[in-house]
Amino acid sequence: MSTKHEQIVEYIETLPIGARISVRSIAKAMTVSEGTAYRAIKDAETQGLVSSMDRVGTIRIERKEKKHIERLTYAEVVNIVDGTVLGGRAGLHKTLQKFVIGAMQMEAAVRYIEPDSLMIVGNRQQIQRIALEHGAAVLITGGFTVTEDVQDLADRLQLPIISCSYDTFTTAAMINRAIYDRLIKKDILLVEDILPQDELTTLTKGATVREYRQLVERTGHGKFPVIDEDGRLVGIITAKDVTDASESDPVDQHMTRQPFVVTLKTPIASAAHQMVWEGVEMMPVVQGRKLVGAISRQDVIRALQSMDRQPQVGETIEGSVLRGFDELLNEDKGVSLQGQVTAQMIGPTGTLSMGALTTLIENCAVLSVHRQRKADVVVENITLYFMKPVSVDSEIELRGRVIDIGRRFAKVDVEVFAGDNQVAKALLTTQTLER
User: Fold this and answer.
1) Where is the CBS domain (predicted)?
2) Contact, 345 vs 354, CB < 8 A?
3) Phi, psi angles (nearest 5°) of residue 260
4) Higher pLDDT, 48 or 205
C-alpha cells in the first residue's frame, strides 16, 4: 500500500496545470498534517511537478523536457526582475521561447512577435495589446502599469503582464544571464539522463532462492534488486549471498538490506565516485522509496566519456579557472599546467584563492594519471601545503608526477611554482574507473 507521502504526490500529479497549491489546501484535501503536506510538496518540486515562486506561490507545472531546461517560466521571470504581476496570472506556469525588446516602430515590432515569447517594452500600450493578441506575454520596464482593458485581455488569454522598475537594457541583461545559467546546468548530466529504459528484472522479497537461481540462468546476471508488494526497494541479492542457502529459503533472509542507492537527480560524477568508493557494479535508482531502475558501471563510464565529447554551451567556475592554462608533458612523463592568475581566481586578500589553487592541482593530478592509464579518474583525497601567497597576474606552473600507481589507485605529487619560488605542494590519492 502506498504511503501518505506517495499518495499526496500522486494527487498533486492529477491537478490541472496552473493550479495553485498550498500546504494548507493539500493537508485538508488529503487529511494529513501540514508537516507531511509540506514535505510532499517539496518532493513534488524535486520531481518537476510544481514550482514555488516568491510573490507568486506554488503552482502545478508541466515537467520540463531535458532538452528545454534552458527555458524559463514567466513565474521565474517575475523573480529574476523583482517584478509585479499585473494580469494574466493563470499563465505564469508557461515557458518562454525567446524575448523581444520593443524599442522599434510598431510595424517592425509585429514581425518579431511570436507565440510563447516575451515582449519587453515601456509605457507603449498599443504594442502591449498587439503582443498579447499575437500570443506573447508582456514585461513592462520603468515601473509603469497598464489600462484595465489590457489587463482584462491578459486575463482572458492567460498571458502574464509583468511590471518591473529596471530599465529595458538591465532587464534584458538579467533575463539573458538567467538563461545562460540554465545552459550551464544543462551540461551537468544526472542519473535520469542515462537511466536505461529497458524493463528492470527484480525479485519480490517472498521469492525463493530457487527462483533467484532460475533467474540467473535465464538472464546471465547475478545481482538483482528485491522489492516489496508496493515496488519499494528492500534489498539486493547476489550469488555470494546465497552460496550456502537452501533452495526453499526466501531471498529476504539472505539479501543485503539498505543497499547503496542513487536518485534520479544524482549527478553522474557523484554516482561514479560512489560506485568506485563502494566497489559496486550496479546501483538501484529510487524515487522516494520506490525502485525506478538501475544503472551499471558501464552506463556511468559511457556517460562520462560522452560528457568529455560534448561542446560546452556554458562556462562553469572550474572552466573559468582552467581557461588560459596550457598542458605540457614533462621529461619524467608527468604533466605541467602553465598559466596566469587572473582576477577571477583571487580571494578577498587579492591573492590566489585556495579554491582556485585546489581546482588547478586536482586537474593536474588527473591529467598526470590519465597520461599513464587511459581511464576515468576521480580524486579520493588531497593533502595541500600552501607556502607563499601568489598575487594576481603572476605566471605559475603546476608540475604533476605519479609516484605510485596500481590497478585501481594512484598517488600523485603536484608542485606549484611562481617563477623560481615554490608556493605550494600537494599529495593526492586517486581512483580509476575502468571497464
Assistant:
1) 194-253, 255-312
2) no
3) -70, 135
4) 205
Mean pLDDT of 198-209: 87
- 323 plus 297 within the same structural domain: no
pLDDT, tens digit, 9 for 90 and up, residues 85-113 = 999 998 888 888 788 887 667 777 777 78
Q: Among residues 176, 158, 54, which one has the least CA distance to residue 120?
A: 176
C-alpha–C-alpha distance, residues 298 and 282, integer Å: 9
Q: Which set of grid coordinates corresponds to residue 36? A: 507531511
What's the CATH code of the domain at 85? 3.40.1390.20
- Report the pLDDT averaged over residues 414-424: 94
Write out the residue range of the structural domain in which residue 113 sits: 66-186
Using DSSP's 3-state secondary structure scheme, residue 224 falls into strand
Alpha carbons 101 and 107: distance in angstroms, whole number: 14
Q: Residue 54 pLDDT more than 70?
A: no
Q: Distance from CA of residue 151 to its chain's centroid?
A: 37
56: domain CATH number is 1.10.10.10
Q: Which of 261, 277, 305 is the last residue of a domain?
A: 305
Cβ atoms < 10 Å from Cβ of 268: 23
The amino acid occupying position 213 is R
Give the domain CATH number at 285. 3.10.580.10
Is residue 230 within 8 Å of residue 289, measured between CB atoms?
no
pTM of this prediction? 0.47
> Which pLDDT tens digit goes with each residue over 232-278?
899 999 888 888 889 999 988 989 888 889 988 888 878 887 887 77
In-domain check, residue 312: no
User: 51 φ, ψ to 5°?
Assistant: -135, 130
26 found inside a domain: yes
Q: What is the pLDDT of residues 286-331, one digit of tens each?
A: 987 889 899 988 888 777 766 555 444 444 567 667 877 888 877 6
- Whether residue 254 sits in one domain with residue 291: yes
Alpha-carbon span 207 to 218, nearest angstrom: 16
- Do residues 28 and 9 touch, judged by C-beta distance below 8 A? no
Which of 21, 41, 60 is the C-terminal boundary of a domain?
A: 60
Residues whose CB is less than 8 angstroms from the CB of residue 53 and which lie 6 or more positions away in sequence, other chains included: 59, 75, 76, 78, 79, 92
Q: Is residue 339 part of a domain?
A: yes
400 touches 416 (CB < 8 A): no
Query: Is residue 45 domain-shared with residue 141, that is, in the same domain?
Result: no
Q: Give the Cα separation of 387 and 396 in Å (integer).
A: 14
Residues 48, 82 share a domain = no
In this structure, what DSSP letter does residue 129 have? H
Answer whether residue 273 is part of any domain: yes
